[in-house]
Amino acid sequence: MKAGVRALGVAESYRGSTSTLAGVVVRASRVVDGFVFGSCTVGGSDATAEIADMVDRLGREDVRYLLVSGIAPAWFNVVDLAELHDATGLPVCSITYEESEGLESAIRDAFDDSAVVDDRLSTYRAQPERRPVSVADGTVYVRSVGIDVDRAGEVVRAFTPEGGRPEPLRVARLAASAADAADREQ
């Protein structure tokens, strides 16, 4: 991959009822090239719209890929990857870091309201299957929309120079945590 290709990584940090989202533009050469921040409701259903808004506010036509840490940030605020792809026009990859049986039972256990459970499960079930991708120091699990499975693996590997987390997501998680900590201190 060319060194100047850019990906926007979005990760979260939360305490209380709001989750801080950070978006970080990183070049394939590992140069950090921009930031954008947002928030979504813990336990809500606004993560997809907020991430799309972050991409819009960033206003960067040079970003080629959108990487999202996880599929259900902010306590099961499930991201609809197809909706995100449609809203941004970017290939979208959701990356998780552990093998699991999925979130269906956890979603059922998390909410008392059956309408909320049904809505979350409907969105969650509509997402593509996770596929394992070998990276520098292990395996991550990738769901992708707007990009074929093999190319998604290439992109994730290209942005993961070491460790088990793509660089745009690693830096975004750090930025979200710092912004969240700064908000709590005020």
From TrEMBL:
Regions that span the bilayer: none
Signal peptide stretch: none
Pfam families: Endo_dU (PF01949)
Top-level division of the source organism's lineage: Archaea
Alphabetized Gene3D superfamilies for the sequence: archaeoglobus fulgidus dsm 4304 superfamily
Coiled-coil intervals, chain numbering: none
Stored HAMAP family: UPF0215
Family according to the record: Belongs to the UPF0215 family.
Listed name of the protein: UPF0215 protein Hmuk_1183
Organism name: Halomicrobium mukohataei (strain ATCC 700874 / DSM 12286 / JCM 9738 / NCIMB 13541)
